[in-house]
């Protein structure tokens, strides 16, 4: 599992705050339009709104913030598979490699 080489850098208060912000951003016209389009950022398939989540490109647990640029719409499955990985780590894990310790 990749969890072994992940260092969680964000503190609990930061995580709570940024997650709350993400919930607010979900209600904005920008994300509502994206949710209606229903295209997953990762697998590019179309989903009903109920199957979609907002995902942080750089996870909150890794210090990522809830900004428009750091949030994408994706399906639950992709969100789960991505977990706490940053975009670079995600690419590496898709290649089946892990960064050096
Ligand atoms: Zn997907």
Percentage of residues in helical conformation: 25-40%
Overall mean pLDDT stands at 88
- Taking the alpha carbons of the first and last residues, their distance comes to 14 Å
CATH topology of the domain at 18-87: DNA Binding (I), subunit A
Note poorly predicted spans. none
CATH class of the domain at 18-87: Mainly Alpha
Portion in strands: 5-15%
Kindly report the spatial arrangement of strands forming the biggest sheet: 1-2
Give the radius of gyration.
14 Å
**Helical segment count:** 4
Shape: flat
Unique ligands: zinc ion
Count of strand segments: 2
Q: Please tell me the CATH architecture of the domain at 18-87 by its name.
A: Orthogonal Bundle
Largest sheet: 2 strands, antiparallel
What class, by secondary structure content? alpha+beta
Topology:
Layout: H1 12-26, H2 29-37, E1 52-56, E2 71-75, H3 76-82, H4 87-95
Antiparallel strand pairs: 1-2
What would you say this structure looks like, in words?
The protein has a domain at 18-87: DNA Binding (I), subunit A. 17% of the residues are buried. The protein is flat. The chain is an alpha+beta fold and 101 residues long. It has a two-stranded antiparallel sheet. The protein has helices at residues 12-26, 29-37, 76-82, 87-95; strands at 52-56, 71-75. It binds zinc ion. The site of zinc ion has 8 residues, from strand 2 and helix 3. Zinc ion (ZN) binds at residues 40, 42-43, 45, 74-75, 77-78.
Key terms:
single chain, 101 residues, alpha+beta, DNA Binding (I), subunit A, 4 helices, 40% helix, binds zinc ion
In short:
The protein has four helices and two strands, in the order ααββαα. It is of the alpha+beta class and 101 residues long.
